[in-house]
Amino acid sequence: MKGVNHIMVKFADLQYVRPDMDAVMDRVKADIEVLKNAKTYGEFRNAYMDYVQADIELSTSQQIAHIRNTINMLDEYYAAEKAFFNAQMPKYGIVVKEMGTVILNSPFKKDFEEEFGSIVIQNIEAQQLLSSEAVVEDMVKEADLANLYSKTVAAASIEFNGETCTIYGLLKYMKSTDREIRKGAFEAWAALFESISPKIDEIYAELVKIRVGMAKKLGFDSYTPMGYLKRRRYDYTPAELEVFRKQVREVIVPACVKLYDRQRERLGIEKLYFYDENITNPNGNAMPIGDRDYMVGKAQEMYRELAPEAGEFFDFMVEYDLFDLETKPGKRVGGYCTSLPLYHAPFIFSNFNGTDADVNVLTHEAGHAFAGFTAAKFQKTPELCHSTSEINEIHSMGMELWTYPWMESFFGDKAEEYRKDHLADALMKIPYLVSVDEFQHRVYENPDMTPMEWRAAWHEIEKEYMPWRAYDGNEFLEQGGFWMQKQHIFLYPFYYVDYAMAQIGAFEFYTQMQKDRKAAWDNYYKLCQAGGSMGYFKLLEYCNLHNVLQEGSVKEALTAVFEELGV
Q1: Which among 257, 310, 231 is positioned nearest to 499, based on CA atoms?
Q2: Which of 90, 163, 445, 448 is least surrounded by CB atoms within 10 angstroms?
Q3: Do 174 and 188 form a contact (C-beta atoms < 8 A)?
Q4: Residue 9 to residues 12, 21, 324, 363, 494, Cα–Cα distance (Å)
Q5: Confidence band, pLDDT 50/70/90 cuts, at residue 379
Q6: What is the separation, in whole angstroms, between the first and last Cα of the chain?
Q7: Domain of 108?
Q8: In the predicted model, is pLDDT for residue 334 greater than 50?
């Protein structure tokens, strides 16, 4: 992996060819035979690295298809390629599982662990528990259902303000300075979700059923431990995570209540409704200046000034146009960063809508991209380049904070306003992040819940973690319909809390920045270099961050943030 394997063409010009899965699997099976019969560790290692190369090539093809499918979910060709991978990858997983079995039972296991680290062994052991012929069909169905959710939400549109708006297209109107426009956009947004809610309920019911069924087939008591293992949570349990949620309820929720009340006063309104939450000032939030090309250009200047290694990374992104940033019809909602391991290249996907969220997503996803780009220089395999998301999101959320000094380039004289709003918003999001987690725990602990019971559970959780939340009489949302707009619940079970845990880590870096910016960057860069070569707790220790699952750690990590926000 070491060194950068430059892409010779821009992403748009990269050729995609559907991989020959029989040939790939035959190649991996041949590697397995060599592993079984190897007489030396050198022979064993070469066979393993050949498998790694085969996996890199396969993964890169899969990611190209995935990116192009999400850019236009109505494109039938890439929809078919997505379905192809959904069907094939579980079968491929069975072959990889066999390789894992051979590695675990090999006389060269100790040599292998010394070279690649204990985390790779843990990943292999997890794979043994998660892969089985018995669940291949279920995994295909699960992937197809998750894709159907994305497609259903992406295809939904409604007429508003003289234009046909998707869900993302409405969000810019929900940040309007005109309260009536905000309210109208909110009502259109809620109506849009309500119109597709029967379909979404149906998809989720089927997803829960399939996931619980898979867990039973694989020998788990419920889906929760299986979901944790899939997320490579080797270091802690749901009970330990509750310690973190408790700290959020006790430390962060009261601070958020104060911040929302201040916001209500600034806006000069008697009651803060949901459609007011995203507007922090009566004259409107700080809005970015310039279009997509302007922002990418300014980002390039910013990263060159931030650090030489950051400049090198962003120059690479620009040279090969490794972005798709504009909102378009048929495009999947949200933003993400993925990688093309054959080229050591990250890719950033977003839906710019002309609000401050455009800058947030650009700096956030650039954090992921920078970390992946950096780790590829220091780690031997792609597997070691990426940690679990509790760490990966520190890269992204930390980068949002690292870029504060350059916000004048994006917001002009509103930069300071943006910084204050962004810092407060990052804190104020945490209760919602944790709510999504608690909701999922409840669902998988009680898998026979009905759609209306899901709504009731969400409503109850919402009251506990977001006591300020009010929907201005919208029946669908007051019943608890808000949960279904969060795609992570459908696509990535148990993921969302990782953002909250990571945000605390990013805030701690922020505290370090105030004391010694160079030392803080050194810690951050160390974390990026380490990739996924250690477990969660070891990585935190390695870059001088606290463990958020320990009582009192949240309050300590937030010292600088609370001080700056005056809460």
Answers
A1: 231
A2: 448
A3: no
A4: 8, 25, 16, 24, 37
A5: very high
A6: 46
A7: 11-132
A8: yes
Closest C-alpha among 332, 402, 391, 390 to residue 362: 402
Q: Is residue 513 within 8 Å of 523, Cβ to Cβ?
A: no
DSSP symbol at 412: G
Kind and range of the H or E run holding 121: helix 118-130
Stated as kind and residue range, the H or E segment containing 561 is helix 559-565
Tokens of 526: 């160390």
Element (H, E) at 348: strand 345-352
What is residue 279's DSSP assignment?
-
Alpha carbon distance 447, 442 (integer Å): 8
Residue 492 lies in a domain: no
Residue 115 in any domain: the answer is: yes
CA distance 387 to 119: 10
Residue 5 confidence (pLDDT): 53
Q: Where are the alpha helices (DSSP H) in 413-535?
A: 415-445, 451-465, 475-478, 487-491, 497-515, 517-530
Tokens of 503: 């945000």
Rounded Cα distance, 443 and 441, in Å:
6
Pairing between β-strand 345-352 and β-strand 323-326 as defined by DSSP bridges: parallel
Calculate helix-pair angle for 292-306, 308-319, nearest 10 degrees: 150
Residue 136 class from Cβ within 10 Å (0-12 exposed, 13-18 middle, 19+ buried)? Answer: middle
pLDDT at 4 over 50: no
Answer yes or no: are the C-beta atoms of 83 and 500 closer than 8 Å: no
CB atoms within 10 A of CB 237: 12
Instruction: Select from 231, 268, 285, 236 the least CA-distant residue to 424.
Output: 285
152 lies in a domain? no
User: Is 220 inside a domain boundary?
Assistant: no
Neighbours of 319 (CB within 10 A): 11
Q: How many domains, in total, are found in the chain?
A: 1
Contacts of 451 (CB under 8 A, 6+ apart): 201, 204, 205
